Amino acid sequence: MRPQDPINGGDATQAQQSLPQNKEAAMSQLSAQKRPAIWKHVLNLFLAATCLHVWLGSPPVLQRAEAQIPDAGLQRKLLVEEAQRTNVLLAEIKQILQAQTLNVRVVGADNQADRDRSAP
Prior knowledge:
Elements: H1 12-18, H2 23-56, H3 72-99, H4 112-118
C-alpha cells in the first residue's frame, strides 16, 4: 500500500516525483516565477514616477532665458536710418541711369568662344 499525501489527497510518491530533485532546480523554478512579478513592480514604479514628473513638472535646473531685445526703439531707429540711406543711394543710381548713356557689352562667362571674340 502506498502512503497517502495528506495535502493533495494522492500518493506521496507522486508528490515526491513532481517536486524538483535538487535545491538548485527548486530555486531556479522559484526565481523564474518571481521574475515577472519583479518586472511588474519595476514597471509600476517607473509609471508612477513618470506620472508624478508630468503632474508636478520638471524642477527648474537652469533659469529661463528671457528673450528681450535690449533697446527695441534704438534698433528700429537704426533700421529706419539704414533704409533711408539705401533709398538715397538708389535715387542716385536712378539719376545716373536716366541722365547718362551707358555702353553695355554682353559676354558669356561660361563660353570660351565668346571670350575669344571679345579679346583684341
